[in-house]
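REVIEWER CHECKLIST
Item 1: Sequence provided? yes
Item 2: Single chain? yes
Item 3: Sequence as submitted:
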Amino acid sequence: MSHTSLKIVVIDYNGGNLASAQRAALYAAQQINLPVDVEISNHPDTILNADRIILPGQGAFADCMNGLKNIPHLLTAIEQSTNQGTPFLGICVGMQLMAQRGLEHHITKGLGWVKGEIAQMKPKNLPLPQMGWNELQFKPNQYPILEGIDPGNHAYFVHSYALTDADSQNIIATTDYDGVTVPAIIAQGNKVGTQFHVEKSQEVGLRILANFLTWKTNSAYPNHSY
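Item 4: Structure as written out by the authors:
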């Protein structure tokens, strides 16, 4: 780790939401007086030298996954860095890519870090996409990423697809959309993902980002000890 600042890399794979994720990480760090250097990059060496990795995502699962695959050595660098213990945060489709596969348009293989697939939601009456603020539900005082957040606090969601057939130990927070229980935060080892947009979730999102930036890998999931 850098002696002067935490090296954070927002992964650039020709997707959207990069600059807003960068700004949110910078602001979250400022709020806790944490010196950081936040870089948008897809260079493997930069990712391998990062202290934290953030993967934003918006749009279709297949497009985002293909964007990662089309940049030489990018996926290998992400896998190598996370295997070495570098904390990883996936946002929205970036979280969905942690699953085994996505079913949007056609079957697309994901990163395979958590069990399950990304399938279209089936609300009873409300339309898709789910768009707007919704409550987070979780067991309090158990998860480092949710420190300072209370059950019932709201986060900002925009999505039509969600993780299904997941292992319950990988789901640390949920939300409800018209009778559909949606995994809102998932985690495995040093990798965590939010279905909602932390960079658009105001105080809640900034606190989650701050928790991610100060997260110690000795409290890796699904072992929830601090």
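Item 5: Key structural point noted by reviewer: Helices lie at 18-31, 44-48, 61-69, 74-83, 93-96, 202-213.
Item 6: Recommendation: ____
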